[in-house]
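Input chain follows. Return structure tokens only.
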Amino acid sequence: MDKNKENEHNGCITTHPWFQAAILNPATLQIAYWQYASQYDELVVEGRKERKYRYTAYRQFVRWCWRYLGRDRRVPITSCVINKIREAFPDPEQNYTGFTYPRLDED
């Protein structure tokens, strides 16, 4: 990608040229989910595909920005990103979990 084109957005990460393809594209998210599920030998998210896509989109965004954080290292995601992901993959009952810190008593 042309470096000048890469920087042509208004400063919000959601307007970055790669955001749509990397974070909101269902095919990208499905492939990323399969990779994650095979890495841990289990399905990670139960329920509707929108829920799975939201979960995977959050993971994709963190991977894009911070690469790999580790199992119990979490970072809050900016509200503009959360809103775009929720808009693309809404929950019919508007039931969202939001950011949670890892449990300190888990090994």
